[in-house]
Each structure stands twice: as C-alpha cells, then as structure tokens.
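Internal ticket #5521
Category: modeling
Description: The requester needs a full-assembly model to guide mutagenesis choices. All entity lines are attached below as received. Residue total reported by intake: 409.
Assigned to: D.W.
Attached entities:
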Amino acid sequence: MQFPPVEEQLAIIRRGVEKIVPEEQLAKKLQHSRDTGTPLRVKYGIDPTGIDVHLGHTVPLRKMRQFQQLGHQTVIIIGNYTALVGDPSGRDETRARLTAEQVEANAVDYLNQVGKVLDLSQAEVIRNGEWFSKMAFAEILELCGRVTVAQLLTREDFAKRYKAEQPIYLHECLYPVMQAWDSVEIRSDIELGGTEQLYSFMLARDLQRQQKLPEQIGIMSPILVGLDGKKRMGKSLGNYIGISESPYEMMKKFMQLPDDCMRMYYELLTDVDIDEVNTLLAGHPKEAKVTLAKSIIGEYHDETSAEEAAARWQREIGGKEMQSDISEGFLNEDLLDENGCMQAALLLKELDLVPSTSEAMRRIKGNAAFVIIGDEKTRINDRSELIRVVEGMIVRAGKKDLKRVKFMD
RNA sequence: GGGGGAAUUCCUGAGCGGUCAAAGGGGCCAGACUGUAAAUCUGGUGGCACAGCCUUCGCAGGUUCGAAUCCUGCUUCCCCCA
C-alpha cells in the first residue's frame, strides 16, 4: 500500500479540525504507517438510538471518508451495548430503554444512511456487544479499578454538573470507560469525534497503554451549529438538515442559515479549497450561500438536482413568482354554509395552516392571512370574515404557510 | 437512616385568598424592512361555538362565597449530615 506523503495527508486531515491530541504524534503515526505500508485504524463510534443522520453527523463521517481516501482502515463501532447506558454528554433526560431488536434495526438503518458518506465496503463495522456481552462482573470491576473519580471529573460535562450540584449517575460514569475500552478491543490508532469526546479519547489512551498497545490519537471536530446559528445541530432542536431530505428542502433550509456560519459550513461540510472559500465569502453573501448549498446538495443527490433546486429557490422564493409546490389542504365541503362560505379563522384551522383557531386569529390580526385566487391576492382582515371557498384557491397564513384548497370526497 | 428545601403556563422566574390565563426575561410566531441572513421596529405567545365561555399553577382531597396562593396526605426532585 502506497500512502501519500505525510505533509500532504496532514493538510487534509487538519482541515476543519478543532483539536488533535496529542498533535505531535499524528505525524509520527502517519510516517510509521507510510514506512511500513500499514494503514492506520481509524475509529468512529455511534449509539444506534434511532438516528436521522443530519449534517452535524456528517462532520466526523466526512473526516472518516478522507482517511479512507488516503488509504487508511476505517472502523465503525456500533454501540449496541453502550446504547443501553446512554451517553451522558449534555443530556438532561434519561434515554428510553431500547430492546435488542430496536437497537439492531436502528443500526441497520443507520448504516444505510452512513453509506451515503462512507464507502462501507471499505469499512469494518463492529458491534461492541461482541465483547461487552461476554464481560464478567469481575472484569468490569477490574476495568473500573483503573479509573479514578478525579479523572472522571476532569470531563467537562461531569465537572460542570458536579459543580452545579446536578446528579451524576453511576452508570453514566461507565459510559466513557466502555467507549475507551472499545478502542482497546479494536486497537485503534485514531479516533474521531466531537470536542466533547476529549475525556473518553484520553481514557482510551490510558487503557491502551495499560494493555501495552499503541495509544490512539484523538481528532476532534468542532460542533456544527444548526440553522439557528447558535446551538448545535440536532434533531430535538429542529435546526438540522437531514441528508435524506430532498434537494429543494435542503435548499430552503440552507438559505436560512445565518451568514456568520458559512465559513464553518464550508470548512466542515465541503471540500472547497480554503482560498476559494475566502474569495466566495468576500463576495455577495447570498451568492456564497447558494454555492455552499449547491455543493452540499450535490453531494447527497447530484449536481443537476442541486442546480435545479437552486434555480427553483431563486424563482419562487428569491424572486416574486408563486411557489409551485404548495401542498393541498383538504377541506370538508359540509363545513361550508349554503353560500359556499366559511369563517376565515375556521378556514385556516381546517386547512391545517395553524394548530388552533386562536392561532388563526392571531395570524389574521397580524396581517399574515390572505386568500389568493389566480393573480388576485386579498387580505383577510377579520377572523369572522366569510370567505367564499373555491377549490384550487390558495390560502395563506404567513409567508411559509400556504395551502391549496381541495375538497374531500 | 436523620434534617432542610423545591415543584407555576416552551424555558427561566414573579405571584398580597378575590381585580390571575397568571409580571419580567429568554425562546418562539406573525408583520415591516431584506438576500426567507443579521440588525432594528411593531404586535403576539392555553383552548373554543371569542364583546362570552372552558381548562391550566406536581397529584388527590379539604377549608372558604372564592385558592396558584391556606390545611392534610401522596408523588417526584435537590441539598446537607451519617
């Protein structure tokens, strides 16, 4: 196996990485690997808790792919056993317990999604139940005997909780130990993850050393912020772009991204050359955003659909044209009075444009509600206004909330 | 095991027995402006058959003409001591 020169590899590896510990050993590892023609074993672990893979997850996954492209061996750990514990990182609720079947189904589902980023045929996929399920209590104790509470408390989230007098459960303490042990089992050279993984990564080094194995190097990516531009991208926060979403959906979301986040997105989610990124960011922010969106959409779909999505966005949202994908709102014709009319507030609610009539009234009061027939746009001024309802007319309850009326059969 | 404290509408956090659908802040929503960015300004933020009515203040009872506010029991959580 012939690897590229170390410097060349480093340049690729360092991109969009926040921290490498210990930094100086990385070059040595790469050099050794190159000299001996041995690929490095690069580990990335996840818990199969039912994940809808979004761009935040792709940050380490893309890094994995880069390692693959450099000729190294990627190892994906499916934490089917760790899933039973639940990662304490920033969690304020205990995860619901999953059955073994659910975990397995999740794992399969997850791998399908990961396949869009990584070449799975070139990766090892290992479930950590393989070793943990066989571990005897005595061995577990032995393992725990190597970690001190003081060490655990160096972990930032535990430290914070401890200081804030928040509870830290014993089983949560085991989580990093298990994760670290995975590294021993698979003899990892490098582990990828977010910055919040620092403690586990270091613990893995301790354990590896104690097992007389080479110590892994932790490569940590920054946390990708979500569409709100502040918090980390996550499903529960509703600020994410899923990699399975349609090109147009992605496009719409990308354009909502705050300008400040573009550099980060470029760096972490694309391969666009940094110099070029600088040029783009120096230009009109909107153009830079469109380019960014196209680049990423192209990765998960294809360039043509990315172009189409961008063009459509420009036409329908950036421009003045009416949106073409207004979804249908089904209406029960029986609700109309003898003149085919209906109270405005009720109409909005029945079309599912708003969750309640109260909300409908708020929108109307806030000048957000319109009825559109053909090119004619009429504002609804009062909640009790009687609207003559015709099939095919468009009802609007806000910029993003439009429905085309369709009667139910 | 003992002692102390807390549970309020999405979060935080006020809340004299009546004038409390419940202050303030955050978040969020809508409108103006715009590049569906940011900033700013305005309005809103339980539900409904909406000038009125109904359901909310951990749970269950009780005292009162009247309770988020008082009493009893329960549940949960936190802290301290051992």
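Resolution: model delivered.
Comment from assignee: The two ends of chain A are 66 Å apart (CA to CA).
Ticket closed.
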